Amino acid sequence: MTGGTLSAMIIIKLIIKKESKYEDLFNPSRKGSYLSTDFYKESLNMTLNYISGKLKYGSDHFPIQEGTSEIVVLEDNKRYGAYRHFDGKLYIVDITCPHLGCELTFNSAEKTWDCPCHASRYDYKGNILEGPTVKPLKRYGEGKNHIKINL
């Protein structure tokens, strides 16, 4: 929201005065942002998270202890996240993030499935807690998550 307001203010200045002191800073064609070491570090980190998530092995057993999770491989040779709630109920979700396809990791402190690539977060049932994702996780038996690129 702040970016939209600031953009409108810059556009107004450009229309009325033909210049804005923030024009260069917010110009989408500006040089430098994609040449910075931070840009390359973040890109490399996201790529490593994406690849390492795809290479993780899953377990062939479900979590027994309440409040714990496991990445499990089921009969369709697909990895799922399994979480055993404190009431004993087992929740199984597809852990491929619907945003861009990274593999989610379990945050045991908050009992959430978190995306290491773009920070989407889901509760243990697969409901969205934080974006950029716009699709919840599918539960076991509902099919695979469909990746919806939402930039």
UniProtKB/TrEMBL annotation:
Annotated Pfam families: Rieske
Protein name: Cytochrome b6-f complex iron-sulfur subunit
Annotated Rieske domain residues: 56-140
Residue runs in coiled coils: none
Entry keywords, A to Z: 2Fe-2S, Disulfide bond, Iron, Iron-sulfur, Metal-binding
This protein's GO CC annotations: membrane
Natural source organism: bioreactor metagenome
Record bears the keyword Metal-binding: yes
InterPro entries xrefs: Rieske_2Fe-2S, Rieske_2Fe-2S_sf, Rieske_Fe-S_prot, Rieske_Fe-S_prot_C
Gene3D superfamilies per the UniProt record, alphabetical: Rieske [2Fe-2S] iron-sulphur domain (2.102.10.10)
Molecular function terms from GO: 2 iron, 2 sulfur cluster binding; metal ion binding
PANTHER family per record: CYTOCHROME B-C1 COMPLEX SUBUNIT RIESKE, MITOCHONDRIAL (PTHR10134)
Record has Iron-sulfur as a keyword: yes
Cofactor: [2Fe-2S] cluster
